[in-house]
Amino acid sequence: MEKIQLLEECRDAKKIIISGHVRPDGDCVGSCLAMYLYLKKALPQAQVKVFLEEPSEVFACIAGYDAIDSSYTVDGEVDVFLALDCEKTRLGEAEELFASAKKRINIDHHVSNARGSGDINYVVPGCSSTAELVYGLFEKEYVDADIAKAIYIGMVHDTGVFSYSNTSPATLRTAAELIEYGFDFPAVIDKTFSEKTYAQNQLLGRALLESIIFMGGRCIVSAIDKKTLDFYNATSKDLEGIVSLLRTTKGVECAIFMYETGNLEYKVSLRSCKYVDVSKIAALFGGGGHVRAAGCTINGTFHDAVNNISKQIEFQLKQCEDMNA
Ligand code: AMP
Ligand code: MN
């Protein structure tokens, strides 16, 4: 998909809204705040707002964090709405505003949103992160250390500190360019990605301890129920990273992590190593994502969810074997 002329598209706008997906992660927060800082600088006459669900406090180190507005209220017409890191159906409370905006721009890297859901779309599924995409649209004269840091955080989170297969030579070149701006990048990785609270580590420990491997060791699954979440006074934000660690179990191709969100309702995270396209599986259950990382919500018991997902994993693994036979 061709690059868009971001500043040209926003030039005459009086009111610009930026938003991303529900349960915002590092890439979502990083790209939305980088966009916010950039547009405020490049188009000082425009009113720019960021609407997001309350992100994890670890992102408070990003400039503009305090400008995040979770009220989703706006006076008058929205000239440009920028939906970042998701398709319109994952905008949550912002979806209605998106629908009524005069110009809708969608920037994303999810393969499940390959066509885009705006009037103007820039979706590159191969790209590491929306942050990397957004940075590619910026005119460099406006980029400063705060903007570079926001972009870097987005990239760090979606690439697992440049370790996942979505990391390309261009990703690393961009990262190199960003750290030239001089922010404390080891601190950023430590504080926003690696550091866990005691409760978060306890939950991780339980998830690892109670995990089950099956399909001859090629799959691993673990779940956290509502009672346990309540015991630790934890939310979904405290479960980041568990599924990625499950995936690192030797011999495992596919990891499934879920947590109970309601009565017979689970939020499911899927990760794969080499063969299984988990975005396809998540899409079957109304979700989406990337080839190696995807998510969905499933109604039913833990066993229903595992049965239904594992059938799909088995199907894909069998197809791979058939192709290699
Ligand atoms: P998660 O397992 O929630 O960390 O999500 C993994 C990847 O899939 C992230 O890039 C998410 O943005 C994406 N994702 C998660 N849930 C959904 C969903 N319901 N629909 C589309 N994409 C999703
Ligand atoms: Mn992303």
In short:
By secondary structure, the protein is of the alpha/beta class.
Notes on the structure:
The chain is α/β, with parallel strands linked by helices. The chain folds into two domains: 6-194, inorganic pyrophosphatase (n-terminal core) (Alpha-Beta Complex), CATH 3.90.1640; 198-324, Diaminopimelate Epimerase, Chain A, domain 1, CATH 3.10.310.30. 39% of the residues lie in helices and 19% in strands. The protein has helices at 6-10, 26-42, 95-100, 130-137, 145-159, 169-179, 185-194, 198-209, 226-231, 242-247, 278-284, 302-324, and strands at 15-19, 47-51, 68-69, 80-84, 103-108, 120-123, 212-214, 219-224, 254-262, 265-272, 288-289, 293-299. Strands 3-2-1-4-5-6 form a six-stranded parallel beta sheet. The longest helix has 23 residues, at 302-324. The protein is globular and about 60 Å long. The mean pLDDT is 97. Bound molecules: adenosine monophosphate and manganese (II) ion. Manganese (II) ion (MN) binds at residues 27, 85, 109, 129-130, 158.
